[in-house]
């Protein structure tokens, strides 16, 4: 098992959700001070159940939640998830991957999850027991844990060893067992007490149970006799009802026949109506189709018009392009003509050149023949002539070059003229396109302004709509509150009304009397009701008046003594108890004398009770008798003083219900009335009714307001829909305009680009022309210089020739001819070269024009193709338009036919309804006859029901149940005697506790059950005691075995890390292995054996690390979090520490929070913690390769 990953969100400085994945081996977490790296170890400690705020470096548990920064809000929750690889099944759970999650809210609520299932902290702790993982284990070691291990109190470090030796689970089980055994002892004591109590109840309950069973037997016999008398009357009514039912059956048959005929007419009328509905639907569909076809015709006509406009546009484009092609053709003809002229000139030059070359060849051969004899003589002259010839050749070349340059300049001038002409046309086109763009942009701006305006209106209306919705929601909330309050008040009112109906609070005799008077109108005649219901008492005085009246509040007021006697006789007859009656004719008034009235006036806030009560004037004697000599005072102190002044002759009652009785006795204490008093109940019922009316009125007003808001909301919604539609239309227009604008811009770009290319070409031609003219001037100057040179040379040659004129006259003539031939040949060659250059330029122009022609013709062909397609579409649309017109005419005709059929059927419907009316008259007469019989039947059934009710009210029997106990009655007189005998015997039994039968059985059953439970508890206590003893033996054995291994490993690791010395672990009390402290003794090399407190910081840290590594060698923890525990070590000890980490890493995964270089070098992976944003930690991960480790080491 190993730590796979940790996820943090909102924990301390980790505001953003981060995930850290870990592999086996050593992982180092590094970062500057304050960056939050130790928060990672705190997070792991926290998720494993740490409850100590101090251990988490906080002042309250809420501190673990990200508290915010100047730029970030505080979070309301912190969550950490820790995922373990459990493929080794080290944890006793059937998952290969276990995720423990802890979540805490600012409210203080904390949640734990195991693989995303809610669980308790206890479940997580039990799962991790004896694994070394947990808040008390040795898997998380920080600076605080080092101090705890090396604490002066040896008991403080014991928990670490218990986790290491694997007895924590046993210890926890022992604690649970001890709790159970203590609970068992407590349960035994309680069960014993209950058994004694039940034994004392069994005897009396057994006697009461036997008496109740006898009473039940007598009541059953009495019931049988009384019920049989009722059955006879019920059966008599049954015979009469059967005869009436037969008559009713005959009437019902006739009625059924008429109803069937009526139904038949109804069916026919329904069929007619269905047919009418069908035709109505068909007419409606036909009309819809008719209007839809009209709409389609309109659309088609619009399409035809639009396509014809497009067709006209295509024709304009074709005409423009054809004009441009015609211009190019004209230019080609002109250039071709020039080319033909130049080619003719070239041909003539070639002929002349050929003739000159042949003549020159002949003259040269003759010259050479003469020259052979006069070479020596003419050598000097020849050299001079040769110089002249060369110069002349150069002049010829220069002149040829000059002619070529002249031709080139002429060609350039022609091209410049053509470019100027094209540029004017394209600039005109550019202006037109620019105007089109401006128009489109203006239209687009207008649309965008409309869109912006619409969006603003939408925003404003949306805000208003949200405001109205919020107001509506507030009203809905208020209505819900009012509804809940109304329901609450209505429920409360119903309860109080039910209490009033059931006469709750009245004694049984009064209640039975009131119920009887309500059922029997004769009995209730002359009865006005109880005193409580005949008066109204102001709020605050209910307790005082109810106390003053006492039991009299339930007295019943009657019209006279006769009515009172009638009630008393009824109560005696039915054995319903005793009540007090107040006849109006016999009641005497009671009032205070003048002296007493004067004394009462002098008493602070004292009031005469009768003055506080509202009642009808006819009951004056009653209330005067009951309350005329009663004084109500605010409290008992004032009451005592008042009683003394009145010489204890009047009853004085306080508002709280205390009484100073006539004669001086006091009655008081806690009130039993509170909110359930009879008078308070009446007042509360009135208040509830008023409250319900007010709430309903408030609800009505709120609903009216809600309806107004709903209307406003609908209006806003309607406006929004219109605006959204406008917005959508404007967006479509915007898209169309943008498309056209883009097309115009592209067209302008092409035109502008072509103008720029022409400008560049013009500029290049102007510059080339200028350069050519400059070259031409240079050539002219060079020719002039050469001609001067020739003139000088000729003068010198003439001096020589005077001496040899005679000898060389012939040679000179030949030489002259040859020279002239060469000059002429050179001149003709230059002419040919110039002609070739001109021909090449003209061919280039023709080639460019051909390209332009091809592009223009291609575009014309495309437009012609589109023109043809569009023309076909227009023709198709026209055909479709004709078809639609035909469909429209057919629909119009069909509509007229359907309307005629509907009218015919309506006439039939009218006739059927008249026949139906006649049948309904017959049915009405039959129904009246049936009603009369039904009324007679109802009267008999009511009589019969009254007998059923008596059966139920007096005996709680249904008619069927009563028939089951029916017997044949032979002598009514003997049955009457028998009934009287049974009633006398029942009366002789006295008070009967009917519940005693079941109570006796229940107590007996419970007594037997608890006796068995007591035995089970005793056995459980003995079993638990044995389990605890066995666990203690197991823990002692395991603790001692593992402790010896840890002690040996501690000493071995100590020697390796310190390079010598020794260390020991000593049990302070070997007899008490499970509770004694553990002492650590350390002796670094070169020092005496001394207390841990005298060691240096580095030595203390290294000692604790030795102990940790010693434990891990005995019982490796799946993973271990070390938080800067090597901070106090020097570099050499850090390297030893890092080496040990690598040795232990095959069995234990290490995550080390560190600043030390040596620890970082030994890590297999590195996590960096930084704070790029103030107060918020961020994770950067690096997995080391050997090369990276070497770089760190260097």
Automatic annotation (TrEMBL):
InterPro entries: P-loop_NTPase, RecF/RecN/SMC_N, SMC, SMC_hinge, SMC_hinge_sf, SMC_prok
Domain notes: Contains large globular domains required for ATP hydrolysis at each terminus and a third globular domain forming a flexible hinge near the middle of the molecule. These domains are separated by coiled-coil structures.
Function in brief: Required for chromosome condensation and partitioning.
Pfam families per UniProt: SMC_hinge, SMC_N
Name of the protein in question: Chromosome partition protein Smc
HAMAP family (alphabetical): Smc_prok
Compartments (UniProt record): Cytoplasm
Domain SMC hinge positions: 525-643
Record's GO cellular component terms: chromosome; cytoplasm
Residues holding ATP: 32-39
């Amino acid at each position: 098992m190993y730590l796979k990953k940790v996820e943090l969100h909102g924990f301390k400085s980790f505001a953003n959700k981060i995930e850290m994945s870990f592999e086996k081996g050593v992982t180092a977490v590094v970062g500057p001070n304050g960056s939050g790296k130790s928060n990672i170890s705190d997070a792991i400690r926290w998720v494993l159940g740490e409850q100590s705020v101090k251990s988490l470096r906080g002042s309250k548990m809420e501190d673990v939640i990200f508290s915010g920064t100047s730029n970030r809000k505080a979070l309301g929750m912190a969550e950490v998830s820790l995922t373990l690889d459990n493929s080794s099944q080290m944890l006793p759970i059937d998952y290969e991957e276990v995720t423990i999650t802890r979540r805490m809210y600012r409210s203080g609520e904390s949640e734990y999850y195991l693989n995303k299932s809610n669980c308790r902290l206890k479940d997580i702790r039990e799962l991790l027991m004896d694994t070394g993982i947990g808040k008390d284990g040795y898997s998380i070691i920080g600076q605080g844990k080092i101090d705890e291990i090396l604490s002066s109190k040896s008991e403080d470090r014991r928990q670490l060893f218990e986790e290491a030796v694997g007895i924590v689970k046993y210890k926890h089980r022992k604690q649970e067992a001890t709790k159970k055994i203590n609970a068992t002892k407590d349960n035994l004591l309680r069960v014993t007490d209950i058994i004694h109590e039940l034994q004392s109840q069994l005897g009396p309950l057994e006697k009461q149970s036997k008496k109740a069973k006898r009473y039940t037997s007598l009541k059953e016999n009495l019931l049988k006799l009384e019920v049989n008398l009722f059955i006879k009357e019920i059966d008599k009514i049954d015979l009469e009802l059967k005869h009436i039912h037969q008559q009713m059956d005959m009437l019902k048959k006739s009625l059924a026949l008429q109803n069937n005929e009526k139904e038949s007419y109804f069916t026919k009328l329904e069929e007619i109506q269905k047919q009418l509905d069908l035709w109505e639907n068909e007419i409606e569909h036909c009309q819809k189709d008719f209007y839809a076809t009209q709409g389609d015709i309109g659309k088609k006509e619009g399409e035809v018009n639009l396509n014809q406009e497009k067709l006209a546009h295509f024709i304009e484009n074709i005409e423009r392009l054809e004009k441009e092609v015609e211009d190019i053709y004209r230019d080609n003809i002109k250039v071709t003509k020039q080319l033909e002229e130049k080619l003719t000139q070239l041909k003539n030059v070639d002929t002349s050149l050929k003739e000159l070359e042949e003549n020159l060849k002949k003259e040269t051969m003759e010259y050479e023949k003469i020259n052979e004899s006069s070479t020596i003589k003419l050598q000097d002259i020849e050299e001079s002539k040769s110089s002249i010839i060369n110069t002349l050749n150069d002049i010829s070349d220069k002149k040829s070059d000059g002619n070529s340059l002249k031709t080139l300049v002429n060609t350039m001038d022609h091209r410049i003229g053509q470019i100027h002409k094209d540029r004017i046309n394209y600039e005109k086109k550019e202006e037109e396109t620019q105007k089109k763009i401006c128009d489109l942009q203006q239209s687009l701006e207008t649309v965008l302004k409309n869109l912006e305006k619409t969006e603003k209106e939408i925003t404003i209306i949306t805000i208003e709509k949200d405001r109205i919705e919020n107001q509506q929601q507030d009203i809905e909330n208020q209505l819900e509150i009012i509804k809940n309050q109304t329901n609450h008040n209505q429920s409360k009112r119903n309860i109080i009304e039910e209490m009033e109906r059931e006469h709750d609070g009245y004694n049984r005799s009064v209640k039975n009397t009131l119920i009887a008077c309500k059922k029997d109108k004769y009995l209730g005649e002359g009865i006005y009701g109880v005193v409580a219901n005949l008066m109204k008492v102001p709020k605050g005085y209910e307790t005082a008046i109810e106390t003053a009246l006492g039991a009299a509040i339930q007295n019943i007021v009657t019209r006279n003594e006769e009515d009172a006697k009638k009630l008393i006789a009824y109560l005696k007859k039915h054995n319903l108890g005793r009540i007090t009656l107040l006849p109006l004719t016999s009641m005497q008034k009671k009032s205070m004398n003048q002296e007493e009235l004067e004394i009462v006036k002098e008493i602070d806030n004292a009031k005469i009770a009768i003055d506080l009560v509202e009642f009808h004037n006819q009951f004056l004697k009653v209330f005067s008798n009951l309350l005329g000599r009663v004084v109500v005072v605010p409290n008992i102190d004032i009451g005592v003083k008042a009683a003394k002044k009145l010489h204890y002759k009047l009853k004085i009652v306080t508002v709280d219900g205390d009484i100073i009785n006539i004669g001086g006795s006091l009655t008081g204490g806690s009130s039993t009335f509170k909110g359930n008093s009879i008078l308070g109940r009446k007042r509360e019922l009135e208040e509830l009714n008023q409250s319900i009316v007010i709430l309903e009125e408030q609800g009505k007003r709120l609903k009216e307001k809600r309806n107004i808001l709903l209307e406003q909301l609908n209006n806003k919604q309607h406006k929004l829909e219109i605006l959204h539609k406008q917005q959508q239309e404007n967006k479509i227009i915007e898209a169309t305009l943008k498309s056209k604008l883009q097309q115009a811009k592209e067209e302008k770009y092409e035109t502008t680009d072509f103008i720029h290319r022409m400008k560049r070409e013009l500029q290049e031609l102007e510059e080339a022309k200028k350069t050519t003219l400059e070259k031409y001037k240079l050539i002219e100057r060079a020719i002039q210089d050469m001609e001067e040179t020739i003139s000088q040379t000729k003068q010198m040659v003439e001096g020589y020739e005077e001496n040899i004129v005679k000898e060389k006259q012939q040679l000179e003539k030949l030489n002259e001819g040859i020279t002239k031939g060469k000059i002429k040949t050179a001149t003709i060659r230059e002419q040919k070269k110039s002609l070739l250059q001109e021909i090449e330029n003209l061919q280039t122009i023709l080639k460019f024009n051909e390209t332009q022609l091809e592009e223009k013709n291609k575009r014309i062909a495309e437009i012609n193709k589109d023109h043809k397609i569009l023309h076909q579409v227009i023709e198709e649309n026209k055909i479709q338009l004709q078809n639609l017109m035909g469909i429209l005419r057919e629909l119009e005709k069909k509509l007229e036919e359907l309307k005629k059929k509907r009218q015919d059927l309506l006439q039939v419907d009218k006739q059927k309804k008249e026949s139906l009316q006649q049948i309904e008259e017959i049915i009405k007469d039959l129904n009246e006859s049936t009603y009369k019989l039904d009324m007679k039947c109802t009267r008999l059934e009511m009589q019969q029901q009254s007998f059923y009710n008596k059966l139920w009210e007096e005996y709680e029997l249904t008619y069927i149940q009563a028939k089951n106990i029916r017997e044949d009655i032979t002598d009514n007189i003997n049955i009457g005697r028998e009934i009287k005998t049974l009633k006398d015997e029942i009366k002789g039994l006295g008070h009967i506790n009917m519940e005693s039968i079941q109570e006796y059985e229940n107590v007996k059953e419970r007594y037997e059950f608890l006796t068995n439970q007591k035995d089970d508890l005793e056995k459980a206590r003995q079993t638990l005691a044995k389990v605890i003893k066995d666990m203690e033996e197991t823990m002692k054995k395991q603790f001692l075995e593992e402790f010896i291994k840890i002690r040996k490993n501690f000493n071995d690791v100590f020697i390796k890390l310190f390079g010598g010395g020794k260390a020991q672990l000593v049990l302070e009390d070997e007899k008490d292995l499970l509770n004694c402290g553990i002492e650590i003794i350390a002796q670094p090399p070169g020092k005496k054996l001394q207390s841990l407190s005298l060691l240096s910081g580095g030595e203390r840290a290294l000692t604790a690390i030795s102990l940790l590594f010693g434990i891990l060698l005995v019982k490796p923890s799946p993973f271990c979090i070390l938080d800067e525990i090597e901070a106090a070590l020097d570099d050499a000890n850090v390297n030893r520490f890092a080496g040990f980490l690598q040795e232990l890493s095959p069995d234990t995964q290490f995550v080390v929070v560190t600043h030390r270089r040596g620890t970082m070098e030994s890590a297999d992976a590195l996590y960096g913690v930084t704070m790029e944003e103030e107060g918020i930690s961020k994770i950067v991960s690096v997995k080391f390769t050997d090369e990276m480790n070497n770089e760190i080491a260097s």
